[in-house]
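I am still getting used to backbone structure tokens and would like to learn alongside you. To get us started, please write out a protein record for me. Start from the sequence, derive the backbone structure tokens from it, and show both lines together. Once you have written the record down, we can walk along the chain together:
***
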Amino acid sequence: MELIYMITPAKKQNLYAEVSKQIIRMISDGNWQPGEKIMGEIELSKEFQVSRNSIRESIKALELVGILESRTGVGTFVAQQAIVNINNMHLTTLIESESSLVELMETRLIVEPGLTYLAVKKATDEDLQELEEIIENGKKAVAEKNYTFDLGFAFHKKVFSMSGNKILINLLDSITGNLIMTRGKVFFQHLNEYILNYELNEHMEMLDCFKKRDAVLAKNMMQRHIEGSLNMIIEEEQEKK
């Protein structure tokens, strides 16, 4: 297989994240087309100069977000919707600055719990039904390995809209792209199905607070939820020092 894009050895830190980014770039640049079979684990391991385990982790991550597709006994292929998913999730423009990432999450930590409080106060039965459907869609996507960042963020966007506060909604809408990219960076650095399901379960717990009209508890749970993501980023930053 002749490659136009030159694969470079992955850096020692976050090996599978580095491999994932290069695979995404190769697909974006047209070196691998939707539906095309890519190299096997052994060949990829040699090209990237990483272990086969790192290659497996990368492939699994890209499967979960609908970019690669593994077929038992056949191999790994570029998913038919790979380009669409890459564009939708802004994976090629992820935030690289850890300080910007922390500041962005701090902004969420300040704003979103308050919005959640307002959302509980104003929630309709239709709103609650939509939140439940969003969570179920997320769980189904994780199980079927086609989870996208947009699906994960849909719960938060719905809570924004339910708050009815146009000023705060506009503030968060203005940085929606960065919020999605934030989730992308956290996702790639800490991806596994356990964490994704844990996050979805936290969404379900918040939904229970909505149903009970417990605005204070819902606010506190949203704060804890965002703090969890923020702490992961801070821990990652400290490990690099």
Residues 95-240 form a domain with the Four Helix Bundle (Hemerythrin (Met), subunit A) fold (CATH 1.20.120.530). DSSP finds eleven helices and two strands in the chain.
